[in-house]
Amino acid sequence: MTGKLKSGRMVVEGSYAVAHAAAMCRPDVISAYPITPQTHIVEDLSQFVADGAIDSKYINVESEFSALSALVGSSAAGARTYSATTSQGLALMHEVLFNAAGMRLPIVMTIVNRSMSAPINIWNDHQDSVAERDTGWIQLYIEDAQELVDTTVQAYLIGEDPDVSLPVMVCMDGFILSHVFEPVELLDQEKVDEFLPQFSPVRALDPENPESFGMFVDPEYYMDFRYLVEQAMDASRQKIADAARKFESAFGRYYGGLIDTYHTDGAEIILVAMGSLVGTLRDVVDDLREKGVSVGLLKIRAFRPFPIDEILKVVARAKVVVVLDKNISLGTGEGAVTTEIKAGLYDSGSDIRVPVMGFVVGLGGRDIPVGTVQRIVAKAKTVAESGVSGRSEFVDLKHLRV
Which residues contact 204 (CB under 8 A, 6 or more apart)? Predict the structure, then answer.
């Protein structure tokens, strides 16, 4: 290698930060297909390779389907792999997402969250990755650029663990995080090498020891394979928590395990959200607490595996749970996180009977101002006093004649 990437605290674009973090993980193969707002990530990685700063095989492909297909082959051959995509590109990968998980390939991919067409929209919500929640990929959602850097390295540690061996999506909000410039502590290569061991695949294609990957199976075996993926997903729960604590020991930063909490002890109202919205909610919680409102915040870092046990411990003594979903599960009238929490409460076997209010917010990049959140909390206060909540609702609708 002829170049060297700088480390230390710098003001950089979010996309550069994640490209730098991915490079520090020493991927053997990077596949790339440009799509807004993901393009800057693979452009930066291309420049790193061209400059000789990283020793990776960089593959330009003709579509997102090909981008992930190339990594399936590379990972099956024993390579550490990386790609990034968004929205329609992720949708085009849908078939291959199942292949990667079913073949137990620990690919890491950054998802720069963007709304799904139609109508065409390039701004942020979580519909693209939430729609892929059943493919068998671990999904981690990120609040800010520094967490993005640090979680990218953790993702390899989690996915490559022999007890897991599953692919991982690291999900960042498009434009809000991908195109923002902010101070970020870029990681040092030697420290990352100490934290993240070389990839040692559980199994790999080898002419000297032939094996089959993703072969045809009949009903005698298929269901058992899916069950094994579910077991691996369940095993990843502890691995996600362990990776976060290990990273804290090595680098001094911690963002929670499967979840994180803010002022939830004794809170009557618990706000729940994923992604960059969490930053806004922290400010709202601070402001409302100064005004005497008993409100706290629960941040979901891992949507898959879904951390229902951790959530139940936090909300057990609350009077109302308020979920802000940047997605909509059409036909149910609510977002996927709301549905998951309601199902978890019903199936918990406990006597927790806290009302759950669901609000669909921010679709297609619509602003979620502080005033909107304050109005939502005001509704939650009414429910906290009465104990009765209504149906989930869309927030801040403007143009119903479309």
Answer: 76, 77, 78
Average pLDDT value for residue range 90-101: 98
User: What confidence tier does 402 reach under pLDDT thresholds 50, 70, 90?
Assistant: very low
Per residue in 152-185, pLDDT tens? 999 999 999 999 999 999 999 999 999 999 999 9
- Any bridge partners for residue 272, and if so which? 298, 323
Mean pLDDT across the stretch 225-244?
98
Structural domains of the chain in order of their starting residue, each with its CATH number = 8-251 (3.40.50.970), 259-394 (3.40.50.920)
d(CA 283, CA 200): 43
Sort 383 into a burial class: Cβ within 10 Å, 0-12 / 13-18 / 19+: buried
- According to DSSP, the β-strands at 29-32 and 57-60 are parallel
8 Å CB contact between 170 and 110: yes
Which stretches within 51-144 are classed as H helix? 64-76, 87-92, 94-102, 127-130
pLDDT (mean) for 324-352: 92
Q: Spell out the alpha helix ranges (H) of 8-38.
A: 14-24
The answer to whether the CB of 167 falls within 8 A of the CB of 101 is yes
What separation in angstroms does the CA of 386 have from each of 18, 111, 120, 148, 268? Answer: 46, 40, 42, 40, 13
Q: What is the full DSSP assignment across 311-333?
A: HHHHHTT-SEEEEEESS-BTTTT
Residue 253 pLDDT level (bands cut at 50, 70, 90): very high
For residue 221, give both structure tokens: 């075996």
pLDDT score at 399: 82
- What angle separates helix 222-251 from helix 145-159, to the nearest 10 degrees? 130
- Predicted local distance difference test score (pLDDT) of residue 401: 56
DSSP-assigned beta bridge partners for residue 185: 9
